Amino acid sequence: MAANALSTAHAHPTRAFGRFELRRLLGKSAGTMVWLALDPRSGAEVMLSLPRVQPINAPALEHWQREVRLAARLDHPNLARVAEVGVQDHWPFVVVDRAQGITLPEWLALHPNPKPAEAVGWVCDLLHGLAFAHDAGLAHLDPQLHSLLIDERGSVRLMALGSAGDATRAAQDAARSKSLERTMAMDPSELRAQRSAAARDLLACGLLLQHLLTGQPALDQPDTALVIGRMAPLGRELVRLPWSTPLPIPEALRAIANRCSSGQERLRYQNTRTLLGALTGWLEAQSEDGGGPIGLLLDRLHSVGHLPALPGLAARVARVISLESQRTDEIADQVLDDMALSFELLRTLNSAQVQGTQVQGNGPVLTLRRIISLIGVNGVRLAANTLRPWPGPLSTPQAAALQLTLERVRLAGHTAQALRPKGYDAQVVYLIAVLQNLGRLMLRYHFAEEAEQIEQLMKPAAANREIDTPEQPGLSEEAAAFAVLGVDIESLGAAVARHWGLGDDVMHMTRRLPHDAPVRKPDTDAEVLRLTASAANDAVDAIGPLGGTRAVAAIGQVAQRYARALALSARDLGDALQAAREALRKGVPLPPARRGDAPVSGADSAPANAEPTPAAE
After folding, report:
1. Domains of the chain in sequence order
2. What pTM value is reported for the model?
3. pLDDT for residue 407 is more than 90
């Protein structure tokens, strides 16, 4: 039976296809079509999936049947069970019982504009099934909305794996092995073909996600295969979520969906489970039970701690204990050098206050000298003993990446100290700048593999002079984190700070000013400290690996942004960075404060016991 004859059969409800009575065309694409039919043998309704093009010869037909029967052996809750694989008039077909659900287009006709979380849940079901198939070396070849079934519980199943049946490829590959274990002896060209098919499946899933979120198909074309043909590298069309959608789409989910169809192939998801992990992380982060990456992070805090202690901690603690007769601020300077120990002291005291066991003071504590004065040097020793030795569970490369991040954060802390206006406490400014990087530090320690993925997504692609391609930018840090984890890095840090008992006022100071937010002149001490720390972190991020004139220009741009709010010049910022580098290199005392700016007056502007108010130097 010709494809065009089948496609018009919906006008003749009793048209026969072998023993089946065709009732209605449920959907079609360039590769497949799905019919609702009656099976007189059982008296039940079924769905028939057929390729739109007949296999070109007997070997191709045999290959189609073998591949589809092989796929039918897969047993997974998100893959529809196959009732029969057959051939009628040289047309191969797959039978699925109607009892397994209705197609997603049928569902959407009755329930339009699903909520984003509902749409994401469906795509996660699809990805679970596809991942299982891909692990077995099989691809669907044509994921479309009409190939998705949804049951009365809202669960989605993918049906008719392999039924698209590329006839040309089938004829060429007819000699493939018949077992699920065939991938063990597969030649490189066949492995590449499998990866290519899996990549097309994954790209189609991203397009289906966008269709479900917006209510409209990408490029106004419901056939995912045709859309893929118009995208890079085959075409030049750009596919992104529109800003106007039936329901608001959270930024994290928008970043995930846009990465699926990025114009740069290197930025797209390369593995079904990677996209599944990002969507699952987003879903769990939206739930009220504290799941997802944030819930996992809080669990890991109990098992491996917030950060591992740097090598030589025991010697440093012994030196601190020997300074017991010295001034508290001198002891604090020694402790401040180890970020893990500083965090543990913050956590110890502030968590105790939240639990009502610390009677001194009634708010969060943000200076190490005050913490040490409350718990004594013996308390410092006990805190140090709770830390996991370096590098914790990290591999050698992961530990090196964490070490590099720690050095950059310390550089930002010392830069903030050098930038602080006269009269502001050096330790407080340092800790605020460090805590503005808390999410980054947690990411590097607790999600080391994901941190590497995020870093790769942020890297630009070099220009290619041979084909006259300009440098292509990478994703922003926020977009890359959304695309990998489903949450942003800021949220990771905020969750840990809240877990430690830091109050809202301190949380505000440790929330770095967003890059797209205007910089207004501060009217409180807390805001002065927040902006000073943000400027220091922006400067360290801006120069990065840059050198020469590019670094000078980057410093100038940061200084220009904060010039009015902090009376900051490019020279001030450059001098602060240089002083911070020297402080790190030599281990010299804290850089001196900038002169000229007086602290904001008014005790009511400072958070209680967080001590952001000016302290005499």
Report:
1. 3-175+185-286 (1.10.510.10), 313-459+479-605 (1.10.3210.10)
2. 0.79
3. yes
